[in-house]
Every structure is written in structure tokens, then in C-alpha cells.
């Protein structure tokens, strides 16, 4: 492993080490020039099928509706947590895109691996299947040349990688065990970590622990992607699940325990300070995405999506709710945010919505994803 990392870092010295050595300074820098053009007018959906995980590609028409374009095997297995119904991974971000290098990362929870695809239009090419560095990977975060994978079992852990010419190389001394108590009974779904995400400048790595820790763990990202010990921000009863950031850099968290969103100030030292909390008026608020500056919280228990706005100071306002098919889970918006796509895990389909100027959602259709009941992971372009 050391030889591989030295080779990667040595070859990349003149190409982009700044993105690893100084995450904040390297935030706007591109990746190490893999040169794949990436996706355009396409949506990729992960099936998480336990008999064989797949990525299904859909072309997006001018009116936002989707047409299946292809299916690609990850060469790994999907996974299923005990107690899960609509989302067998209990997470957000199991499918992640690296725009600088045109790469798509998919977790194979049942195989403890991550698949790396190059993206060209609506076509995928499998380049690598690599060990996740832990047990039951559920979420992937990308910033510059750094990729971190969140593993949900074995106490929970994160593992760092460097992306180099279309492949992931594990970074030594970047594996961090979260020390969580993960049950084996039907509460496992609620007691595994939910998401790993980078702060906007890449200087911090955030992990939500859901009901196992009821905390937001924040790591400082140092030179070469190494992590500090985490700052554990306890949020009793909140069950923090999914995260994103608003336009002014506030952390926004979906809380499954209180069916609400909370905005926070994230300090350079890793502490989070609550600004505002507002309920969705729904049940099982878990997933969270953005489109045109609006926030959309997905409520699996109420079969709905709740829209929010956030002021420059971080205050939240509720726009209202829009119905979905049964068991909505992860969601993603198209480039420019004109369309929102929501996975509905009970039947394994994707609901299509047009995003209005005031944030209102208008249903425009739905497509079935073969073999994706209980699946999670979606990326839209």
C-alpha cells in the first residue's frame, strides 16, 4: 500500500498536491486531469440489489421526464440493514459524483467495496472495484482529489482515498473508527451512521451518527487528507441523518428523531452552534437536498417532500409539502435545479418534479428502476 501511495503522490506532485496539502486553498482547483467529460442531461440511480448491485442510467428530456438508457453492474453486492423498509442502507450519498474527473462512486454494502465508473454522457465504464476500508459502506464524500467513504458497521468508520487517474488509492493512517454501538436487531437501521460530507472549503469532514450517537462528528482535514480526532457535537434525541450547506456556508441537517431541519454555524474548530430549527410536519424526515437555493427534506413515513428556504442569517421558513410514491428516500436535482428527482424505495421508482420559481414542486411523472426496491443512491445532471 505504501508503495502505491508513494507512486501516486510522487507522480502527482506537479499536478495537484495543493488540493491535498491545503484543503481550503485547493477548494476551487480541478482534479488531476483524468479528462472524462462527465454527464449531461442524465440521472444515475443505484439499485443496491443484494443479488448484484447496478447503476441504471436515464436520459433527461427537455421537459424533465426520464427514459432508461442503460444498466451497469458494479461487480459488487447491495446490502440490507436489519429493520430497513424503504432504504436498505439507512444513509444519504451512497452514489457520489466527482465533477472534476468525471467519475461516479458507488458503494457495494454487501461486498464492503466501492465501484469507480468513468462517466461519458449517459454511459458508464467500470474502472475499479476497491475495498471500502471497513464493513458495510453506505456513503461517499468527494472534495478535490480526496474521497472519504463511511462504513456503517463494525462500530462505524471512515476511510480516506486519493483519486488518481480514474482510480482510488487508500491513504494510509486515514481510517478512523467512530466507536459506535451498532445493534444487530431490527433497530440497526436507525442506529448506524447516516452520511459523510465535506465542508464547502474541504477543511472539515462531517459524519452524522443517527440514533447510535445522536451526534454530528466533525474532523479537521489536514495535509495529505489526514484527519484529526473528531469534535463530537451531541444532539440528544435529534437523530441527525442527512446534511447539506446553504449559500452562506451554514450547515443544514435533517433530523429523523424530531422530523425537522436545523441550521448551524460550523466553527473552524469543529463545534456546531444551532441557529434555527423548524419541523416538517411530517414523519421520518431523513434525506435532504437543494435546488435553486431551496431545501427539500424527504419524509419516508409521510410519503412527501417538504420545501424550505433559509435566510442569509440561517433562519428557516417552511414552503409546504408535496406527495410522492411510497417510501421516498434519497433525492437529487438536475444541473441548474430546474428538476428534482426523488427515489421512492418501497416500489423502487423515481418520482420526477419541476421546481417552480417559488420552490413549489410540480409532479411530471415517475419511472420504475428495475430491481431497486429498497435501493438508495441518485445523482442528477
CATH class: Mainly Beta
Mean pLDDT comes to: 92
Main beta sheet: 5 strands, antiparallel
Shape: globular
Number of strands: 29
Unreliable segments of 5+ consecutive residues: 1-19, 21-33
Give the helix proportion (percent range): under 10%
Supply the number of structural domains.
1
Write out the CATH superfamily name.
Answer: YVTN repeat-like/Quinoprotein amine dehydrogenase
Report, as a whole number of angstroms, the end-to-end distance: 35 Å
| Share of residues in strands | over 45%
Rg from Cα? 19 Å
Per CATH, what is the topology? Methylamine Dehydrogenase, Chain H
CATH architecture: 7 Propeller
Task: Characterize the structure shown.
A hairpin with a 5-residue loop joins strand 27 and strand 28. The strands form 7 sheets. Strands 8, 9, 10, 11 and 12 form a 5-stranded antiparallel sheet that branches. The chain has a 4-stranded antiparallel sheet with strand order 3-2-1-29, with no helix packed on it. It has 381 residues and is mainly β. It is globular and about 45 Å long. The protein is built from 4 helices and 29 strands. Helix content is 6%, strand content 48%. The chain has helices at 2-11, 13-16, 18-21, 210-213, and strands spanning 42-46, 54-60, 66-73, 95-98, 103-108, 113-120, 123-131, 135-143, 146-153, 157-164, 167-170, 176-177, 195-198, 204-208, 215-220, 231-234, 240-245, 251-255, 260-266, 272-279, 285-291, 294-299, 304-310, 316-323, 328-333, 339-344, 349-355, 361-368, 378-380. It has one domain (2-9, 39-380): 7 Propeller (Methylamine Dehydrogenase, Chain H), CATH 2.130.10.10.
Amino acid at each position: 500500500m505504501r508503495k502505491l501511495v508513494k507512486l501516486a503522490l510522487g507522480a502527482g506532485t506537479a499536478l495537484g498536491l495543493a488540493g491535498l496539502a491545503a484543503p481550503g486553498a485547493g477548494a476551487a482547483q480541478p482534479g488531476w486531469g483524468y479528462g472524462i467529460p462527465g454527464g449531461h442531461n442524465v440521472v444515475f440511480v443505484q439499485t443496491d440489489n443484494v443479488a448484484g448491485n447496478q447503476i441504471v442510467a436515464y436520459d433527461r428530456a427537455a421537459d424533465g421526464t426520464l427514459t432508461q438508457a442503460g444498466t451497469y453492474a458494479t461487480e459488487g453486492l447491495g446490502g440490507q440493514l436489519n429493520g430497513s423498509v424503504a432504504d436498505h442502507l439507512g444513509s444519504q450519498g451512497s452514489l457520489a459524483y466527482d465533477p472534476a474527473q468525471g467519475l461516479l462512486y458507488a458503494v457495494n454494502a454487501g461486498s464492503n467495496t466501492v465501484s469507480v465508473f468513468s462517466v461519458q454522457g449517459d454511459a458508464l465504464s467500470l474502472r475499479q472495484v476497491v475495498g471500502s476500508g471497513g464493513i458495510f459502506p453506505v456513503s461517499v464524500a468527494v472534495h478535490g482529489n480526496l474521497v472519504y467513504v463511511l462504513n456503517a458497521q463494525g462500530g462505524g468508520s471512515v476511510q480516506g482515498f486519493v483519486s488518481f487517474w480514474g482510480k482510488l488509492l487508500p491513504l494510509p493512517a486515514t481510517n478512523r473508527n467512530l466507536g459506535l454501538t451498532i445493534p444487530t436487531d431490527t433497530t440497526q437501521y436507525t442506529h448506524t451512521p447516516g452520511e459523510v460530507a465535506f465542508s464547502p472549503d474541504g477543511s472539515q469532514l462531517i459524519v452524522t451518527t443517527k440514533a447510535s450517537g445522536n451526534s454530528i462528528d466533525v474532523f479537521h482535514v489536514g495535509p495529505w487528507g489526514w484527519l484529526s480526532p473528531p469534535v463530537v457535537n451531541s444532539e440528544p434525541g435529534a437523530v441527525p441523518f442527512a446534511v447539506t450547506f446553504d449559500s452562506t456556508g451554514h450547515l443544514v441537517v435533517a433530523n429523523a428523531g424530531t422530523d425537522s431541519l436545523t441550521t448551524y454555524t460550523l466553527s473552524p474548530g469543529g463545534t456546531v452552534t444551532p441557529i434555527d430549527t423548524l419541523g416538517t410536519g411530517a414523519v421520518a424526515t431523513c434525506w435532504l437536498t437543494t435546488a435553486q437555493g431551496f431545501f427539500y427534506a424527504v419524509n419516508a413515513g409521510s410519503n412527501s417532500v417538504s420545501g424550505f428556504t433559509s435566510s442569509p442569517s440561517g433562519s428557516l421558513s417552511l414552503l409546504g409539502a408535496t406527495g410522492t410514491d411510497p417510501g421516498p428516500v434519497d433525492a437529487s436535482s438536475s444541473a441548474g435545479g430546474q428538476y428534482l428527482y426523488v427515489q421512492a424505495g418501497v416500489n423502487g421508482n423515481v418520482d420526477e418534479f419541476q421546481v417552480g420559481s417559488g420552490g413549489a414542486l410540480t409532479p411530471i411523472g415517475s419511472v420504475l428502476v428495475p430491481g431497486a426496491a429498497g435501493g438508495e443512491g441518485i445523482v442528477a445532471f
